[in-house]
Amino acid sequence: MSSPSVASPATSPRYPWLAVAAMGLATFSVVTTEMLPVGLLTTIAGSLETSTGSAGLMISLPALLAAFFAPLVVIAAGNLDRRWILCGLLGLLVIANIASALAPDMLWMLIARALVGFCMGGIWAVAGGLAARLVPAHAVGLATSIIFGGVAAASVLGVPLGALIGDFAGWRWAFGCMAIFSAGVLLIHLFAIPALPVHHSVTLRQFAEQFANRKLQAGLALTILLVAGHFMAFTFVRPLLLSVSGFDAQWIGALLFAYGVAGIIGNFLAGIIAARRTALTLVFISLGLLLAPVLFLTIGDSHVGGGLVLLAWGLAYGGVSVGLMTWMMKAAPHAVEIATALYVGVFNIGIFLGSWSGGQAVDRFGLATNLWLAAGLATVALLLTFAIRSSGKKAQAICP
Fold first, then answer.
1. CATH class of 15-398
2. Which of 68, 321, 332, 374 would be a feasible disulfide site paired with 232, CB 3.0-4.6 Å?
3. DSSP bridge pairs for 7
């Protein structure tokens, strides 16, 4: 059996917590860039003269590519210093955002978004396993939560931030602002991140071995169900709020910001509970993501109803990243880098499948049918979480 990736300690970081914060900002930058088109979907579609469903490719294409690149970067990186890999990927992210801001048509935009997918897979996968190299052992848990907190914060704040900037200055400036922000994060990395050499790289055989891990398999299945179901509906949240709940366009940014705040609260609540009761946390998250589209169909046809459902939706989805990542780390405690790469890959496959199939459903059958389909995936996820929790209780009864 090949030895796992072996990394030497970071070269005495002068500011270890600034380095950790820089890693969190990197994950925030790339996932915010990923989510940016969601709150601007109808505006970009109109500007680039394409359908709303086709514009959903701006979400699904980079997600699909990130799923491929996450494990590939971990394997192909070999012994390269992780500091320079991260800096190179951040530089490419700046270029991708500039290209998106200047896109004259949908083809140009999709090429720029493909580059985003490459950056997403690489940054998220490499950053996940670096906490132990930057801070003392007793602080690794907090450092890891900060790094992955960038993913959680971006998942819930990226959409409202893009929508707010788009409402005030236009959708091109939303991408331009992300280019400036990503350039700032790159400068922080160059200053704060120490050398991060690696002695032995991860192999394909180790990935194959982890695919046989039953707990990891369950977590990956749950990931694709929850993420695909969420993005099937949430990719089209702007047209939902406009056409179903009857909001005026100027309210969308504020509504999505409120969704983001609810998501941050959900992230912290899930993080606290998941450390001890991971399966129970996933049950509540699955239930929340089932109720969100159902409630939108039943009480979402008013300002009050639509607003309340959106807040509940943010609360539920805010816990997805930390809840699922906690499960993955517990499922493969001695292969966290591999588990992280697989999780990132499957997570982004879920985004691709959800946003792509949602686009097809919206174009062919309408928004309401799409919500029912999203609720169906969340129902399967809920049943799986009950099965996971039940099997865990049986195992505890046999081996108390």
1. mainly alpha
2. 374
3. 198
